[in-house]
Amino acid sequence: xxxxxxxxxxxxxxxxxxxxxxxxMSSATPTYSNNIHQVLRDLFEKKSEKDKKNxxxxxxxxxxxxxxxxxxxxxxxxPAKRVLNPRIDTLSKIVDFFKQDGFDIAxxxxxxxxxxxxxxxxxxxxxNETSEIKTIPVYEMDGSLQKSIGTIRTKISSPSGNYIALxxxxxxKPIFKKGSFFxxxxxxxxxxxxxxxxxxxxxxxxxxxKLCIKKNKKILISYDxxxxxxxxxxxxxxxFIGVVIQxxxxx
Amino acid sequence: xxxRFLKKLDRVLxxxxxxxxxxxxxxxxxxxxxxxYITNALSYKRHKMKESWENFSIHSLKNTKIRESKKxxxxxxxxxxxxxxxxxxxxxxxxxxxxxx
Lengths: 251, 101
Known about the structure:
The complex is a heterodimer.
Chain A lengths: L1 H12 L22 H16 L5 H8 L3 H7 L13 H13 L6 H5 L7 E3 L10 E9 L9 E7 L6 E5 L13 E5 L9 E6 L6 E8 L2 E5 L8 E3 L5 E11 L3
Chain B lengths: L1 H16 L6 E9 L2 E8 L5 E5 H8 L5 H15 L4 E3 L4 E4 L6
Antiparallel strand pairs in B: 1-2, 2-3
């Protein structure tokens, strides 16, 4: 009797959506990227709708203390007349202005273009079961990298490289708590959209940021909205420690 | 005694029939305005829910199967940066003892 009961229970519950594991989500809205001028035009439209009156380039220029001509060139409909690599501090001022007005926008939205909230399906991801365990030296993030404070043993899914680990001494957005290990391949070439560890002259510690390369400009972007992006220029003495390929996150 | 017997029987039959205890099944990862959101489903529940990473990591990550949490780490890595993988297993860290010369 008990067995029959459980059998019936199984039949009933196996039809519940929650039990259908591995069910694929419909693929998300495809990513699209817009140029800065289009992103700005969208923002102007939304602000005009919100305020129920037309918001102009002149008003923005006055509010953020940037010459009107700069903004006109940034948003020009003619690509030949448009400025394609604006200064990062101009973009920061624009973002700060719209954020204070209640818009959800980050500097990355302007630099990389707005992505339409792409979602990544978890079930289709593959795990590399053949990765080998490596012993990796650990350093603190104080920038010296002279003496390791210990070692970790962990599986690395990437192919061969030269690995070191940095032990974070603070929370790093978006999800990394203090005490997480950032595993860095010092031989990997920093590319656009990679997470990199950088030592900048004048900054007392190694910083970990997302690298954005646009039109030969290298910008370090933080997921922390309070942290301003850093443009890496020839004047600014800096050194790439390497590319972060894995994070053993503290939970 | 009966209760204990029924509990044991319940466990044996649940394992045999593959009926899991309440587990979290992460479905997708999204970044919205620099914040991570996880859409997930619970066993025996009809609906999916979207929660911030802060809530998920506190309440739901521990109820996720190891294999699914590994896949979640791969998905999170992809969402955050190129060629990045996140792992949640505990890391064996051997601190060096300071040797005084």
